[in-house]
């Protein structure tokens, strides 16, 4: 069955297929200023209800393939302690993490989410909202558009993403908890800002903001520069998101260690492309 963007996105509200339309231009301007100020911007009811159901179904049919990981991890997504650093260094703060992904390589050829991720329209719209061009779809075959599953008791502690730009598409909310919290622009290329990161890890709430997402909402987010977390899932239902990602470097993928820890395996591409990051930031 061939898919069509108009059956997935509310194109009346968000005409991303026509970036010259006055309507989308003003939406892009708003997103741009949100992203500059706040590292993140939300587009309510971006996905149509029927498409949302299809996404929910495709994930639920493959829940047995979701890789769940439970481990203690630092904000830079390492599980290994670095004894050469001072004891109170943020890299030495380890937090509980219980989280799962349906890896992108598990998606069916006919997947609604995969189709959406691969459209030029979405790529160009996100690029315009970020005011960054070119951006690329992520070359990581496991992580590029994974479904995120947080089961009851699931928790995603403070961290930075390894890709620059993340979309978060809320599919199903938790009954309670599962709140996205973030600290805008806390680090930038060449400046880790460890002092400020340390404060947040130690419980300081001064920089912390919360974002409430409803099913169908799309969030555009600068996850590599913004410390963020998802609070513990309470109640009986799981929280489902899809997190398609875009990057500045079309070649780069996750490190083998990161891929194994978060996605359950590393592929040859993760070893072949395991080089230092050009922005000098840790992940
Ligand atoms: Fe993240």
Overview in brief:
This protein is α+β, with helices and mostly antiparallel strands.
3D structure, described in words:
This protein has 7 helices and 15 strands. The protein is α+β, with helices and mostly antiparallel strands. The protein has a single domain, classed as q2cbj1_9rhob like domain (Jelly Rolls). Strands 1, 2, 3, 4, 5, 7, 11, 14 and 15 form a 9-stranded antiparallel sheet that branches. The protein is globular, with a radius of gyration of 18 Å. It starts with 21 loop residues before the first helix and ends in an 11-residue tail after the last helix.
Comma- or semicolon-separated keywords:
283 residues, alpha+beta, nine-stranded antiparallel beta sheet, binds fe (ii) ion
List the helices and strands and how they pair.
Elements: H1 22-38, E1 40-43, H2 49-60, E2 67-73, E3 95-102, H3 112-117, H4 120-130, E4 136-137, E5 147-150, E6 156-159, E7 165-172, E8 176-177, E9 180-183, H5 194-201, E10 209-211, E11 218-221, E12 227-230, E13 233-234, E14 239-242, E15 245-247, H6 256-263, H7 268-272
Antiparallel strand pairs: 1-11, 2-3, 3-5, 4-15, 5-14, 6-12, 7-11, 7-14, 7-15, 8-13, 9-10, 9-12
Bound molecules: fe (ii) ion.
Residues 159, 161, 223, 228 line the site of fe (ii) ion.
Structural class label: alpha+beta
Low-confidence stretches: none
Q: Compute the average pLDDT.
A: 95
How can the largest sheet be summarized?
9 strands, antiparallel
